[in-house]
Queue: 4 jobs
Job 1
Amino acid sequence: NTYFRGTLLGKGGTAGGDGANAEISGYEYLEYEGYVDLTAPKGMLGTLLLDPVSIEIVGGTAAQDGNNCLNLDLGTAADCTGAITSAVGHMGVTEAGGAGAATKISEDKIEATDANIYLTAAKTIFVSGTFAGGDLALKVNRNLTLETRNAAGEDGGIDLTGAAVTVKTSGTGTITITAGTDGAGTTYAKLGPMSTANQNITV
């Protein structure tokens, strides 16, 4: 399990150089609550890769459990609403429904990320909740890639119909949707409204 609540900077220099490509990885569970900046004023924008088992993109803010378990004072387990012996198991995993359950990433975290965004899941990517203005809108000139791998025994796919949301990029931003890249499991792609500024949408 991975819990990211910090800052990741991989920026190009003021005179040249590209933004970095960065991966925040957690197969069983990934909590993405920090800030990433992979910009490059004189070069190419970097890409942020997140790759848990399944991803739930939740409208609004604060998709995670909100408990301060990463800074848990072992003298008081109140923040984790349980005994100290169960605190580690409570650090987001039980809140998400157990190991391997969908990692929740909130709308505001995606919209604030200063990088191209590459979400790849072993099983499923889906949306839920209420999105501000009915949109999931990346920052200008950011690309969005949604991908599921779906190896044998890991059936699933991409479903963007579970909430009233239009997935949007602007400027040079593109959208790429790919389900079942491993080719062994049963997969699907259920798409809702998507919009770019005359850039490619690839499915």
Job 2
Amino acid sequence: VRGALLFLAPPRPYVVHIADGYPIEKDSSFFAELRILLVEKALRCVTDEILVLNPEDYAFAKRFKLFSNKLYGFPGLGLDLSAYHPASTEEKREARYTLGIPESAFVLIYMADFTAHANQAMLLQAMRFLPHDICLYLPGEGPLLESCREKAEALGVLPKVSFPGIQRDWSLCCHAADVAVSAALQESPSLPLAAALASGLP
């Protein structure tokens, strides 16, 4: 998007760029860092403000002045842990009623967008080998949602898998579950998994 703004005639919009990890490491080669720097420098003229989520990115953006106006640093993303706690029997019952989950089921939960990276398809394959009373709850949306739904149907596990769409209340979802699972091919610090752990889920 910022690249397209380079070719936009004035007046252009005011641009705030959120940098969630410049792709540089301590052992990055000079040429790898130079490539990133040249791109960011070229986009500086259309980047009014930068918001970064860690000290390394802040230092990098400040050192090379990758912004036109202001640079802001935030202490990353996180959870309000006061909103999460292990569910009581009654809370679990109410959560399952609210979400339409059978009270007697053993529920696995994986909160993630439906992308190739999230790899929900692997969990659908695994469901073929699990007992019939184990259910898989997959809140979220994304480009692969429909293909995952079709895959579940083709594998014959659709009755044991729930695709409820986006669920904003993670605490409610965790209260309804017995175990949190993940099939991500690569995982940065995961807020949904942190929410599950804060809710006492293994």
Job 3
Amino acid sequence: RKKKSSGSYPRRTDRCDVTGIDLHRESFAEVIADALPVLRAHWAEVVTFPRFPFDLDVAGYERLDAAGMLRIFTGRIDGRLIAYASFVVCRHAHYAGSGDQARLDAIYVLPEYRGRYVGMHLIRYCDGMLAAEGVSAVFHGAPVAEPTFANLLMRCGYRPVETIWCKQFKETRDAGSGIEAISANNLNPEPTPADREELYVT
């Protein structure tokens, strides 16, 4: 059954000739019921912090949506959600005169629909909708372990502007007090032989 729009937003429905996918902007309330199982599949595939279970902050997303900061764009086939992209839109605190900027929160295409230009159509649709509302720049993050997405972004006109570095701290639990703490050894770990070699190379 095809999903009916609530009419909350003006719709610009672009039918993708190759894939037959309808692209829309939807509110969080409109999409969340359909999105939850897809979000779980997304988490299972690309989880960055495996020790943390999937636990969507629904109230947090509702606050962002209520504040006018959340943008969710979806791809559906006969109402079935097969792709989505969400962004947080706000004014950069350091560059107030640059206008609103959009930063990617999440983007995902179901595996069976990949390789059929779904991601490219979705990104270009998002770009058009965000530009139409006056967003001055859009930022995406691309996983280092998955260069395919970075290549797709470049094909859509994006260019790399920064590298995001992450350091995970190992949590330990004191058996006596039950208090979790960050392992001191992990704050300044001893370099491995590979690390030392890289230090000399770079």
Job 4
Amino acid sequence: QRSYIHAHPSRNVEHFPDTRERLAKRRISAKDYVRILESAPAYLRVGILLLEQTGDRTYSELFSLRWEQVDLDAGVISFNVQLKTENSDTVHPLSDLAVKILRWWKDQTVRGNPFIFPSPRVPDQPIRNVRKAWGKTLEDAKITYFPIYNLRNAFCTRLSKVASDTVVTKAMRHSSAETKRRYQLGMVEEVREAMNLANTETY
């Protein structure tokens, strides 16, 4: 015979405290940033600089980049592959500093390799994971561990100090129906100007 139960069986079950397991986002001071760069191997140092300068997603965007996707003369990256969101698949402007870093790195890398960050073990493939190298870098710099993805947060925070919400949204390539409809085809120069201004204000 069917009947109603007085309460849900799981009512008194304690939920898994997942929020306590997550590492809190942290602000990276200029001194810590310099110590991190000084402790990082060359390829990771370049990656760190570019992550902080572009706000790119770590693996799906930056570390999987091919040279053919970067136009150093125009100062843009073309994400012509499947990414996290539809709005990510756009032309992304580079700051002047990011262009200088990429030009320098291109001179240091093996000619003919299509990847900006080729795997040291499998050169015809991009780097798949930098977690160990990142952890070792923070350890050597005597800085408490935080995910390398936080560099994207640092980029957003820094840019937000000098740019409008619209420019920041475009720079971060977040999905927004209104923003995408109104601004998807433009604002390349506005984003670049904001990046350069943010560099001047910070450094």
